[in-house]
Amino acid sequence: MKIVIKQMLMPLLFLAVQLSSAQNIGIGTATPHTSAKLDVQSQNSGVLLPRMSSAQRKAISNPAKGLLVFDTDTNAFMYWNGTEWQMLVPGNASGGMPTEIMNPGSSAVNNFGYEVAISGNFAAVAALHSSNINRPVYIYEKTTEGWLQRQEITCPDAGGTFFGNSLDMDGDYLVIGDYFWKNANSTSVGKVFIFKRTNGIYTYENGIQSVSASQDYFAYDVAVSQSTPDGPVVAVGMPHYSATIPARFWSGRVLLYKKVNNNWVLAQNILPTQMLAGDQTGFSVDINGSILVVGAPYRETNSGGVYIYELAAAGSSWQQTGSYLGGGANDMLFGYSVSASNNFVAAGMPAFTTGKKGKVVLFKKLTTNNWTPTWLNEPSHFSGETSNSFFGQSVSLSGDYLLVAAPSSNFTLGSTHKYGMETGRAVLYKLRLVAGVIPVSLLKVSEAEFASPDNSFAKAVGISGGNVIIGHQHAADESSAIKGSVTFSSYDE
């Protein structure tokens, strides 16, 4: 019977299409607009495009350029641009639009978004401010209702001073640094706090106090990887450490701790062979699987440097397999920010050129001990808007995706932006490797809604598993109070 009905309806539908004016199809209207091949009008219903999972969408054979579907996993419309699938608008679990979350704390807790970290569907946000000693770190989880606050973590002991000045997450682990943490003698030696997630809740597991009795900025930056060949490993930057043999003031170092029988033990002291006085090695650090990257941005009059280490097998030592120095040009701050993924290493150079426009250097390992660099300039449409975009102040890698911060907010005479201020930006890229070269595709630029003096939008950024977090520590609430915010978004992996 269904077949008979279809056979009867098809000629009628064909006739209706043919009778529409000027070959334009109208649904709900007898006079479709002449500029539209299809004009659908309704006041109580909409149009449903094909809906499918990400796996079903990616399985479409030979998609036509411009093909549009709705992805039920990303909750966003996806289109084929002729090369790859892209979102019409970066989405999130609450409906396909970037979500801004304001500081949930009291008036004393501002600078929310000072530091951020993200791993999968969990994120951490620090709210660092001198007027509040009990500084919190907020935990968010991505759900079907969007990003929801799950926890508020404060320093587990009485020595906390700048709790949350550094953050990192990977898998079930969260590490929080406090480089001004005070010991029993009230000396600011620094400490890193390790938390582990069980059943969606992070609980305090252990704290590692600086091995030094002086203020060496222990935990100025921290990083964690759950899946190194040695199991979970925490890297702790110590940029104001002064080497003794030979004597090198503020040469810096990185300490690696691994988990052995539920205890965190010192595994290795990272001291690059090229290290000089004043380098501040460990100012930035990241670890991912078998790759460790260390930044020394103040080497040789702020020219900077980056060191890459690898761990070949469990129980072995991390070996330096790459060293890249700033080349002698002053004030580039090469290595101010660093990030590592399974395929790439990224290093920010936010003060590159006298105008401080900034650059990012991408490294890809092609052969043993050979990390090939590619230079990434700020997007071309940044040019001329400001001389201080600081592109590369923060970088974050996840697989073949790179998020770069450019948190400029300087006054620009004649600027088209509100109040004559230049907004900060976060820029998302897709990376590839073709014949030894890294082509880079610009996917998305997120900007502050409006500019304000020193708004620091995108001072801190993070990316993981299709999710993006952008810190905006000086964002104002509805009463114009500076409290800070973070923006969540997503992309298609």
Structural commentary:
The protein has 493 residues and is mostly beta strands. It folds into two domains: 2-87, no CATH class; 99-490, Integrin alpha, N-terminal (Methylamine Dehydrogenase, Chain H), CATH 2.130.10. It has three helices and 36 strands. The chain has helices spanning 2-19, 54-58, 299-302, and strands at 25-27, 38-40, 51-52, 68-71, 76-80, 85-87, 99-102, 112-119, 122-127, 137-143, 146-153, 166-170, 173-178, 191-198, 201-209, 222-228, 231-238, 243-244, 247-248, 253-260, 263-270, 284-288, 291-295, 305-310, 319-325, 337-340, 345-349, 359-367, 370-377, 395-398, 401-406, 425-431, 440-447, 457-464, 467-472, 485-490. It has a four-stranded mixed sheet with strand order 3-4-5-6. A hairpin with a 2-residue loop joins β10 and β11. The longest helix is centred in the first third of the chain and has 18 residues, at 2-19. The chain is globular and about 85 Å long. It starts with a helix and ends with a strand.
Task: Give a quick precis of the structure.
This protein has 493 residues and is mainly β.
Walk me through the topology.
Blueprint (H helix, E strand, L loop, with lengths): L1 H18 L5 E3 L10 E3 L10 E2 L1 H5 L9 E4 L4 E5 L4 E3 L11 E4 L9 E8 L2 E6 L9 E7 L2 E8 L12 E5 L2 E6 L12 E8 L2 E9 L12 E7 L2 E8 L4 E2 L2 E2 L4 E8 L2 E8 L13 E5 L2 E5 L3 H4 L2 E6 L8 E7 L11 E4 L4 E5 L9 E9 L2 E8 L17 E4 L2 E6 L18 E7 L8 E8 L9 E8 L2 E6 L12 E6 L3
Parallel strand pairs: 1-2, 3-4
Antiparallel strand pairs: 4-5, 5-6, 7-36, 8-9, 9-10, 10-11, 12-13, 13-14, 14-15, 16-17, 17-20, 18-19, 20-21, 22-23, 23-24, 24-25, 26-27, 27-28, 28-29, 30-31, 31-32, 32-33, 34-35, 35-36
